[in-house]
């Protein structure tokens, strides 16, 4: 039941999952928060591993039939209330001229560290360079119609893409990226500009192909302090938020390790801010208020807890999120390869019992 701090009305009748997610993103009344999980299609699922045994990860991203199949697995097997298109934040880079591999994380053979390399980065029309992404979305929309389950598209944010492109691989502190930021800021600025154009084109093309919500993942931007965030990250989020077809699809902005930048996330103007588990959800929900909905934010490793404890955490999160105009139940980061399927099931079932 809504408490004193609850700014929301409840929808009178039960909603279908599509309307529930869209309404929660926009801060309209819902019967209960919708639930899905970041990285819900992946190696923790035996059914995913079975499909993946036969193809490489990039082949799977390009194979329309198999990509549709693994996208639907968490919906059909676990009851997730949204489908997120199977792809990767690196897929739009396939058309840019950058040589890319997965081992299993992204690896860039020749990291971009000079003005000349950045100048060679092409920004193609994604509908021509990676047409399979949009075909996967179109097929998924048809598949999901009968289930009334919404389809989420996504992209990596410019800073996170730049972090991998400059560093060459994932890192704790991204020293090569920071060296570029402090010694050759104009090179990084040019790279972020090109990547912002790429992300806008990729997300709008996904919306055109049927994505009903889009999520921007800024997984690594949390390595910057608040002042550097305002200089390097906030302008990219603002530009993307302004250039997307938001009337067709609300925007969720995810930042990992971003407890120090919650206000700046709101300033970018997304429909939803998606928070990692280090963020005090009650505090973030108060800051969001009527400006944005909140998504999150269970520690993915808390899915190892017994089901009753997961249910308690779900109820606590819902209570904490009450001051925000809407709440989407999710993790604070993605599912991991050793995530217990039973924990995912318990999380989704606990959300459904809130109704
Ligand atoms: O289920 C879904 O959420 C949809 C698909 C999805 C993948 N990657 C599939 C994937 C999504 C939304 C992503 C986003 C992504 N990819 C992010 C942002 C979210 C986050 O987790 O922070 C990032 C940083 C990447 C880059 C990336 N791709 C990494 C670091 C890895 C390796 C990590 C790992 O799980 O080993 C990948 C590969 C990848 N992307 C896999 C999957 C299912 C594992 C590939 C495999 O099958 O071997």
Short description:
The chain has 355 residues and is of the alpha/beta class.
3D structure, described in words:
With about 350 residues, this protein is α/β, with parallel strands linked by helices. Helix content is about 45%, strand content about 10%. It has a 7-stranded parallel beta sheet with strand order 1-4-5-6-7-8-9, sandwiched between helices. A two-stranded antiparallel sheet has the order 2-3. Strand 2 (about 100) and strand 3 (about 105-110) form a beta hairpin. Helix 4 (about 65-80) runs parallel beside helix 7, helix 9 crosses helix 10 and helix 15 crosses helix 16. The longest helix is centred in the middle third of the chain and has 25 residues, at about 185-210. The mean pLDDT is about 95. Bound molecules: coproporphyrinogen III.
Overall spatial form: globular
- β-strand percent reads 5-15%
Radius of gyration: 19 Å
What is the number of beta strands? 9
Identify the strand order in the major beta sheet. 1-4-5-6-7-8-9
| Hetero groups | coproporphyrinogen III
Distance between the termini: 10 Å
């Amino acid at each position: 039941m809504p408490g004193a701090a609850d700014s929301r009305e409840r929808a009178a009748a039960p909603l279908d999952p599509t309307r529930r997610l869209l309404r929660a993103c926009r801060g309209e009344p819902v019967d209960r928060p919708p639930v899905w999980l970041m990285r819900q299609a992946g190696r923790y699922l035996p059914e995913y591993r079975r499909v993946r045994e036969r193809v490489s990860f990039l082949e799977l991203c390009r194979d329309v039939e198999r990509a549709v199949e693994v996208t639907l697995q968490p919906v059909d097997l676990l009851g997730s209330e949204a489908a997120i298109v199977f792809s990767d934040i690196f897929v739009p880079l396939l058309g840019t001229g950058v040589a890319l591999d997965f081992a299993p994380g992204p690896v860039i053979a020749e990291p971009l560290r000079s003005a000349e390399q950045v100048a060679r980065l092409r920004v193609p029309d994604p509908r021509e360079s990676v047409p399979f992404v949009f075909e996967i979305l179109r097929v998924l929309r048809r598949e999901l119609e009968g289930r009334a389950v919404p389809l989420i598209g996504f992209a990596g944010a410019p800073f996170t893409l730049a972090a991998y492109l400059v560093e060459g691989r994932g890192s704790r502190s991204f020293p090569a990226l920071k060296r570029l930021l402090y010694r050759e800021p104009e090179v990084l600025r040019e790279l972020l500009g090109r990547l912002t154009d790429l992300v806008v084109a990729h997300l709008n093309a996904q919306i055109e192909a049927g994505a009903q919500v889009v999520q921007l993942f800024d997984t690594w931007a949390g390595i910057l302090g608040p002042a550097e965030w305002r200089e390097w990250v906030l302008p990219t989020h603002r530009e993307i938020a302004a250039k997307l077809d938001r009337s067709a699809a609300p925007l969720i902005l995810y930042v990992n390790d971003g407890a120090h930048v919650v206000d700046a996330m709101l300033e970018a103007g997304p429909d939803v801010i998606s928070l990692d588990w280090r963020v005090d959800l009650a505090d973030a929900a108060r800051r969001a208020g009527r400006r944005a909905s909140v998504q999150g934010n269970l520690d993915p490793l808390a899915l190892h807890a017994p089901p009753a404890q997961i249910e308690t955490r779900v109820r606590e999160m819902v209570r904490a999120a009450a001051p925000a105009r809407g709440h989407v139940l999710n993790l604070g980061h993605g599912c991991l390869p050793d995530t217990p399927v039973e924990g995912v099931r318990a999380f989704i079932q606990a959300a459904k019992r809130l109704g």
